[in-house]
UniProtKB/TrEMBL annotation, chains A, B:
This is Bifunctional oligoribonuclease and PAP phosphatase NrnA. One of its GO terms (molecular function) is hydrolase activity. SUPFAM superfamilies: DHH phosphoesterases (SSF64182). It is an enzyme of class 3 (hydrolase). Its EC number is 3.1.-.-. It holds the Pfam family DHHA1. The gene is nrnA. Residues 22-163 form the DDH domain. It comes from the Bacteria. Residues 240-321 form the DHHA1 domain. Keywords: Hydrolase.
Length: 328, 328
């Protein structure tokens, strides 16, 4: 893309932001690093321009991201007296995913959308959705070039967190050459990347490792070696005094095994009812597989809920998975 | 550094490589991704220039790196009839770490050293050691700019593996702005980064996870929450049919815990004898701590061997660690 085309791409958003004086920024439910990082970076930049900025998140900021500059200024509840002439939906292009802040869409003078997720229907006055970007933080990074803003260390830190979390530390296939170029620039601006990575990935609650230890004991591998699974009974969380957040990501462990294409995690949520997380490594479309059981998701990460005892549920899923596995 | 200075920095090495016709490349004992990636990238480039290249490694190539282009051409044994006029020590500037290939230093017409490790004494005819680089792969990347070589996908893949492994996926504090710039260029050259990351980090032997599961059950946290440890008894490996390589990196798990600065892993190697791995997160100098028990290493990763029963050994280490921990 040439300079002229890039400027064109951002012009409507730039003009929308320039015009507004009081701006509300809001991310999606269950905010992640990209959502929060992109929102805070944009807000800090707009404040530099003299705008009045309010941050909203329909769900509380996970403690993991509390170190982000101004994370403590993010409102979870709506203040009735709050006034603004522009509402920006950040990392979110599905109104439902704004949670209870969806009501603000009707109350705002103007609405802008800034996102990189696919599959949404455009809404608002200005809609900029670039799925080619690995993170909304990448879009904000580019956007700031066209605003009268100095990208300081705080803004750069927010953008780095957005990018590093949504690319799996530059390992997912959404990571492009431009992703690394942007990271290079952010490091030059003073981002303490090593410290941030420790904050993000080496500050887990003890109970997370206790849950991991317990669940790993259930790890099994199919005869063919291409499917691996683990399970967790309902009382485990209670016994360990753990909550849902400590279970996040456990399904990635069976995927780590050599030769495994399909990883499954069965979690009992009620008597005879299992929430199943499905992950694949190179080729298997777990979205299609989960659809067979009324679930869905993405090609490499999906989920469904199944009823029956553990052995039946497992057997059903493994049988259904067989046609999806390539002969090797 | 300006272009002229950069050219100057590499000029002796460039001239050494240009002059030679038959070149032996050799890495260090227990080769890692940087050692192998840098060596293979340089060798492939030299072959493009019409040179005859032989690859040596004092220890076998770990299966993890078998996917590297030409990894199967790396010799572990010395062929007596082998002739060469230049020997290049890659990622290694301590002759001892060339293992049994150290003898080649005396048999080569010329010797060159290409490395990024600190603390060595220069040897050979041309010595290029740049500790400012995160990986020897970064030095080879820069070096290739001054050689009549087209960096193809194979060479780029080797360089990417060198860089991604020695920077902990761009997370360690050796990762600089230039590291990301080089990665950006390598991705542009066709490196399949996502696939490589899966090969490197998601193809573990099942037994590694079984060892992890067993050892995690021993996880404990000190009263102050700043020290965490795990241990492994001698029969565990035998019982799980595991080997040393399956234990690598386990000490990183206690370090993942929030608030933990010092992580310890006690591994029984003989009756009443423990090999202790020490890791720290932000500030504690584990090299100094390990030195108190006759060991050593780096400020964030060190080791020592201690005698006694597990409780005594643990108590001694924890007592010694106290003065190293900051009051919080």
């Amino acid at each position: 893309m040439c300079e002229q085309e890039a400027k064109q791409l951002f012009s409507a958003m730039v003009s929308e932001l320039n015009k507004a004086e009081q701006i509300a920024l809001c991310g999606h439910v269950m905010p992640d690093g990209d959502c929060l990082g992109a929102m805070l970076a944009l807000g800090l930049a707009l404040r530099q321009m003299g705008k009045k900025v309010v941050f909203y998140s329909p769900d509380p900021v996970p403690e993991l991201y509390a170190f982000l500059p101004c994370a403590d200024e993010i409102h979870v509840e709506l203040e009735q007296q709050c006034q603004f002439d522009l509402f920006v939906s950040v990392d979110c292009s599905v109104p439902d995913r704004l949670g209870h802040f969806q009501v603000l869409l009707g109350r705002a003078g103007r609405v802008a959308v800034l996102d990189h997720h696919t599959g949404s229907v455009p809404f608002g006055n200005t809609y900029l959705n670039l799925p080619v970007c690995a993170a909304t933080g990448e879009i904000v990074y580019d956007l700031l070039r066209w605003l009268p803003v100095l990208v300081d260390e705080d803004i750069a830190t927010c953008l780095y967190v957005a990018i590093v979390t949504d690319t799996g530390s530059f390992s997912y296939d959404n990571t492009g050459s431009l992703t690394h170029l942007r990271a290079a620039e952010l490091l030059k601006l003073g981002v303490k990347a090593a410290w941030i990575n420790k904050r993000l990935y080496e500050e887990k609650p003890l109970v997370s490792l206790q849950v991991l230890s317990t669940v790993l004991q259930s790890l099994e591998l199919s005869g063919c070696g291409r499917v691996a699974w683990m399970f967790m009974q309902r009382d485990t969380l209670h016994r360990l005094n753990a909550t849902d957040e400590h279970v996040d990501g456990l399904v990635n462990y069976p995927r780590l095994i050599k030769g495994v294409e399909l990883a499954l995690f069965f979690r009992e949520i009620e008597d005879g009812k299992y929430k199943v997380s499905l992950r694949s490594k190179y080729y298997l479309d777990v979205n299609k597989l989960a659809t067979l059981f009324g679930g869905g998701g993405h090609p490499r990460a999906a989920g469904c809920v199944m009823e029956g005892n553990l052995e039946d549920v497992k057997h059903q899923l493994l049988q259904a998975a067989l046609p999806f596995l390539k002969d090797e």
